[in-house]
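User: Before I run my own analysis I want an independent prediction to cross-check against. Here's the chain; please return only the structure tokens and, at the end, one sentence I can use as a sanity check.
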Amino acid sequence: MGCRYTYNDACRQSWWADVRVTRSEFIRLAGSLALALLGSAVLTGCARGKPMSHEQAVGDPNVLVVYASCALVPPVDSLRKQFESANPGKTLLIEGGEPAALVKKLQGGSAADVFMCLGQSEAGLLEREGLLEPSTRREIGEFSLVLATPASKPSAVTDAESLTSPDIKAIVMAAPGITSLGTDGKHSLDRLKVWNKIQDKLQLQASPLAAAQVLSKGEADVGVMYDPCPLLRLPGKIAPNTLAVVAPLKAGGEKPAAIQMVICKHSQKTALGQRFIGFMRSQQARPELEAAGIPVQGATATPKPAPDAAAPPAPPAGR
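Assistant: Structure tokens:
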């Protein structure tokens, strides 16, 4: 059974959601990001010293196009030159955006070679729709759910049950179903038998970044976040030292969230994509990732460049 909540007070609308949502609901909610995200996409990398368009990159067998959620762009870009040096003649092109916006682009027919996102909901949805290759999915990092407050508004929150206190008026988090953070948060709050008690306090946002920004401005009393939170390292997005982690959000038995890396179903560069994923999980990449606040567990030996597979047939026209 779904839970009714207000998605966006400014739009004065409510809807029903559960941990999983339909594709139509996902597209409708992701669409609310469109205007805010116009012009905000991050594009890093170039080929032979010249900037290239998305279409050129997708069609170039020597350019790997990675769709990465915006919080992951800085750490991935910090490793770009290392990857390219280890793979002469290859270029890494990173396109970043809000997770829901990247999902919507892939659902709309946009092409990429690798999809990266923190948490399983987005990758799971794309796999169910046949847009990612499940057998190629790999993980890096370990992230725990926590409760956080604005640094300017300390509260007496010590655990999930504290959220039911009359002193807590507003709780902000990413919407469940369309974001991994929201889905994981709802799951834990459900298991702790708190979710149904806080419905009238919820301020659900279309993205983790939007939720963190609301909390950092003191417009809510408590928020649900991952710890560590890669969003806090995005330049100019969240003011420094405005958020404070106050308590873990654990129901028991949860697996820590991780960054998912999956090759897109119709990529013509599977071998290069696998090489990139192996590099991201290697000991060589570990120092940069940990410096970027990504706790890496179980890194593997640095992979050796593998010969490219035989050139696949050209993609259909229009890709």
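Sanity check: The first helix runs from residue 23 to 31.
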